[in-house]
Amino acid sequence: MIFPTPKYIYYIIKKVSGVTTIQFLGGCREVGRSAVSIGSLMLDYGMKPSDPPEFPLNGISPSHVVISHGHLDHVGVAPNLMDYDPLIYMTSPTRELSGILLKDSMNLLETPPYSKKEFRQFESNTIEVNYGVPETLDGWEVTFYNAGHIPGSASVHMAKDINVLYTGDIKLEDTRLLKSADTDYPETDVLIIESTYYGVNHQPREKLEEAFVEAVADTVECGGHAIIPAFAVGRTQEVLMILDRYGISTYIDGMGKEVGKILEKYPEYINNSKRLKKALKRSIPVERGKRENILTEPAAIVTTAGMLNGGPALFYVSRLYNDEKSRILLTGYQVEGTNGDSALNRGVINLGMRTVNLKMGVEQYDFSAHADDRQLKELVKRVADSGAEIVFTVHGEESKSFSEWIRSEIGIESYSPRNGDIFVI
Ligand SMILES: [Zn+2]
User: Fold this and answer.
1) pTM above the 0.70 mark?
2) Which domains does the chain show, CATH number per domain?
3) CB-based burial of residue 225 (10 Å sphere; 0-12 exposed, 13-18 middle, 19+ buried)?
4) Ligand 1 centre and the CA of 380: distance in Å?
5) 217 C-alpha to center of ligand 1: Å?
6) Peptide bond connecting 52 to the previous residue in cis, omega within 30 degrees of 0
7) What is the per-residue pLDDT across 91-147, written as a single tens digit (0 to 9) for each?
């Protein structure tokens, strides 16, 4: 086994027996390019969608790859590992969602990091797994648990000489689309937890929904267009369910249409599949050539891209930016440097050929798919109470503060690794 030069190698002596090597290859003290290798297993292998995109550091040659969920920052460059011909494990919805997002990113990137052949090999090496059913991977007993983040998302428990729990991205409360994460985990010695929202608490869901629905209804009643940018996977369907619940009819545009059709095939992964079906049926899909037509009357339009970096959302904004009656209602976190961030904080948007000042309103409603500060802390407490001795915090700008909090408030060992760090336990 050859390792690249690590930043540091730490040796941790614990009651746990055996020698297990954990290497963090990406997604440390940042959001994006998640990848952790444990023994010969790789957990996630994503890309950071920056410009240019960033990839995980080189690590082991994995015999098996486990994908927690179908977001590109977790699966985006998994096809790059095909030289090692590993078997790949994920849930059925993750397989389909990864498939369409990877194909889309291959088309968007000027130089795709992997070939079509590698993508096909990635697909044919994939084995579908169910929540709660253990699989044996190179001597590890690996079990997936619902993570409540997007449809098919999983936290992964691995048992061998030591027991490791990797939360992946996790949501610890019900939403209209998904059930809260299942946290009935077996014995855990080492916890690897995301920290996206450490230090930030979410507004109660009900209040957030009410404010959002009121803004949409007001905009349409006053004769404007409510442009609702939403991520294709999960957020689009969640927003449609909220608006449908309040009797607001909507148009739907972009990749979210295709994702909706996929999700209908997996009712067991949805909180209330009947309501989803109803909301999808009532929304009106917009065809590519018909976009201009729906701008003649006031309307609500749910559309990709969620951070306004392309997609039909930009078409609508290009027609409406001077219309004071219309509003952009962002439905998620906006990464710095994206159009969504620039629209929200500076009232300016880049339409490709030109940059314009927005006269239309811009508001943000953070329907987050991640646990907040309070929920993250509660989860660590619970896993520590049932015997965990070491916690690694990853996937977040505030990972370091989170691990300091764990050390001082819970009193167990905690680290916020840097990309490249190796821990031998
Ligand atoms: Zn995610």
Assistant:
1) yes
2) 9-200+371-424 (3.60.15.10), 205-364 (3.40.50.10890)
3) buried
4) 19
5) 30
6) yes
7) 999 999 999 999 998 888 888 899 999 999 999 999 999 999 999 999 999 999 999
